[in-house]
Design a protein that fits this description.
Helix content: 40-55%
CATH topology of the largest domain: Four Helix Bundle (Hemerythrin (Met), subunit A)
Largest sheet: 4 strands, mixed
Number of helices: 8
Radius of gyration: 18 Å
Number of domains: 2
Strand order of the largest sheet: 5-4-3-6
Length: 261
C-alpha cells in the first residue's frame, strides 16, 4: 500500500474492514451522478422544495468549497464572489463530475494534518474534511437514488465510520455546544447495528445540553436497532426506525441536539 493510501485507509469497523476515504467519495459521487442523470426534475423528499437538479447544484458547490479550502490551505471560507457560476441545465452532471474528481484529487494530494478552515472547533485540518465529505456524498447519493424510486444501502464500513463521526461532530457536544442552549438529553440509550458487531452508547455530555458517546452498549440498555446504513440515515432523518424501546421524549431531546441538513 502506498503512503498516500495509508493516509486515507485508516478507519475500520469492529471487524477490521477498512476503506479509503477518497475512494468512497469517488464511488459515491459516481453513483450520485448516475442516479441524478436524466432524473433532474424528481422531487427530493428530504430536502424541502428541491428537485434533483437543486441537489446536484448543492453538492457541486460543496465540492468546490472544500476543494478550494484544501487546495489553497485557507483558514477562512473562500469569498462568495469566487464561487463558479451555476451550470446550464444540460451541463449540470458534467460540471458535478468534474468538481467531484477535483475534490478527490485535491484530498489525495494533501497532507491530512495540514491546518485549514473547518466548521468543527475540535478539528481544523484536512483530515476532518476528507472524512466528513464521505458522509456528505453518501447521504446525498441515497437522496438521489431515493428520488429515482430506488433504494441504496450504504456499505457498512462507511456507514459505521460516519455514525461515529456524526456522534462526534454533528451533535451539541462539549467542544461545540448548541447556541442558544437546548434542553439536556437527560438519559442514555444505545444505537446497535444489526449487520455488524458494533454499537454506541449515547448519553449526556459534561456541559449541560450536550451529548457524549462511547463505543459499545450494555445488553440491558434500551436502544435503536437497524442496519448500519439505516442507522446513519435515521440520524439524518431519511428513514424511520423502531424507537419504541427508548422513551419518546428522550429520542426527541436527542434529535433536538443534533445538527443535520
Amino acid at each position: 500500500m502506498t503512503e498516500s493510501r495509508k493516509r486515507h485507509a485508516d478507519r475500520a469497523d469492529s471487524d477490521g474492514a477498512q476503506f479509503d476515504y477518497a475512494d468512497a467519495i469517488s464511488e459515491h459521487s459516481a453513483g450520485f451522478a448516475d442516479a441524478a442523470d436524466a432524473n433532474l426534475d424528481a422531487v427530493v423528499e428530504h430536502c424541502p422544495g428541491w428537485v434533483v437538479a437543486n441537489l446536484v447544484q448543492h453538492l457541486t458547490a460543496v465540492h468546490w468549497f472544500w476543494a478550494t479550502i484544501v487546495e489553497e490551505r485557507l483558514s477562512e471560507p473562500p469569498e462568495d464572489e469566487r464561487r463558479p457560476a451555476a451550470a446550464e441545465r444540460g451541463d449540470l452532471i458534467a460540471m458535478f463530475r468534474t468538481g467531484a474528481a477535483r475534490l478527490v484529487d485535491v484530498l489525495r494530494a494533501a497532507d491530512q494534518r495540514a491546518p485549514v478552515y473547518t466548521w468543527a472547533p475540535a478539528q481544523r485540518d484536512v483530515a476532518f474534511i476528507t472524512r466528513h465529505q464521505v458522509q456528505e456524498v453518501a447521504v446525498h447519493h441515497w437522496d438521489a437514488v431515493h428520488a429515482a424510486g430506488d433504494d441504496l444501502v450504504i456499505e457498512a464500513p462507511v456507514a459505521i465510520d460516519a455514525i461515529t463521526e456524526f456522534l462526534t461532530f454533528s451533535v451539541s457536544c462539549d467542544a461545540d455546544p448548541a447556541e442558544p442552549a437546548r434542553p439536556a438529553l437527560d438519559g442514555r440509550f444505545a444505537l446497535r447495528c444489526s449487520d455488524a458487531d458494533t454499537s454506541w452508547t449515547v448519553s449526556d455530555g459534561k456541559t449541560p445540553g450536550t451529548v457524549a458517546y462511547e463505543h459499545g452498549a450494555r445488553a440491558e440498555l434500551p436502544g435503536v436497532l437497524g442496519t448500519s446504513s439505516d442507522l446513519l440515515l435515521w440520524l439524518y432523518g431519511r428513514v424511520d426506525l423502531d424507537t419504541s424501546a427508548v422513551p419518546a421524549d428522550l429520542i426527541g431531546r436527542f434529535q433536538a441536539l443534533c445538527y443535520t441538513d
